[in-house]
Amino acid sequence: MNLATLKRDIERLDKQHKEAMRRKKELLKQRAIACSGCGKKSRISSWSFIQVTWAAPVFSCNGGGHLAYAVTEDCSIRCPKCGKESDIFHHPAKEKILALLTEDFTAEDLFGKYEVRHSSY
Ligand SMILES: [Zn+2]
After folding, report:
1. Distance 33 CA to ligand 1 centre (A)
2. d(CA 101, CA 84)
3. Distance 24 CA to ligand 1 centre (A)
4. Measured in angstroms, how far is the CA atom of residue 31 from the centroid of ligand 1?
């Protein structure tokens, strides 16, 4: 096997990998979550994900605070059917949501809308 053949193999596998990841993402987006408010199920791709951020205090002497991102559990999701917002930490589907976001994709990739909310503390 020569280098040119190997390069072609790698390119082919890269393409297959990208295509498989694209399909995996589409399947994950179709997973349903039930709302704890109205009880209706909706696909991940129609829920909104609310990423919470806050200004992190300055610890070092070289200054400059920065924007910190809350972990998934401390963020919220909003039901597309009734508009109820629920924090993921107390959501009945918490484990399902957390598992989805370890499958190579971010909330931005899977959810219908991605919002960033600045928290004051
Ligand atoms: Zn609802």
Report:
1. 10
2. 21
3. 26
4. 16
pLDDT score for 81: 97
What is the CA(66)–ligand 1 centre distance, in A? 34
Q: How far apart are CA 93 and CA 33, in angstroms?
A: 7
3-class state of residue 33 by DSSP: strand
CA 12 to centroid of ligand 1, rounded, Å: 44
d(CA 29, CA 33): 10
With 0.85 as the threshold, say if the pTM is over it: no
Domain ranges in the chain are 3-119
Q: What are the pLDDT digits (tens) for 50-104?
A: 999 988 776 666 666 778 888 898 999 999 999 999 999 999 999 999 999 988 9
